[in-house]
Specification:
This protein is mainly α. The chain has helices at residues 21-53, 57-91, 97-128.
Length: 130
């Protein structure tokens, strides 16, 4: 029996119907966080490869500025996702490992975003001179 977008516990389906707006919002936020994490990792790899390949300093600064911007956006989305997943975990009667896994993943991406932001801003500060 379906009531208020929640599915009966006897069925093995997800908590929200696939056509509900909450389900759509969760999917968009999860995919956006994953996309930003991959962009952040690729920019970090580009920076380290650029050091080895001797990129121009303006290119390196551009990569570091982009890395700082993406890490701030990823931090914001990770915090939103972890709050939403924690609220969903607490409010539902059906406690699944999926929510805990997502919360751990978002905590990891939050920490990584903070570290990469501080790293990129620190390198930019040192390259411009104190």
């Amino acid at each position: 029996m379906i009531q208020n977008n929640k599915i009966d516990f006897n069925s093995k389906k997800t908590i929200y119907k696939t056509n509900s707006s909450i389900y759509f919002f969760f999917r968009i936020i999860i995919r956006m966080t994953m996309f930003l994490f991959l962009i952040q990792a690729s920019l970090l790899i580009f920076y380290f490869i650029g050091n080895y390949q001797l990129f121009l300093d303006t290119s390196q600064k551009l990569i570091l500025n982009l890395l700082a911007i993406v890490s701030v956006i990823n931090f914001t989305f990770s915090i939103i996702c972890s709050i939403l997943n924690f609220i969903t975990y607490v409010t539902t009667k059906r406690k699944t490992r999926k929510f805990i896994t997502y919360i751990v993943w978002y905590f990891f991406t939050t920490i990584l975003s903070v570290v990469t932001f501080l790293l990129s801003r620190g390198i930019l500060l040192l390259s411009n001179g104190l």
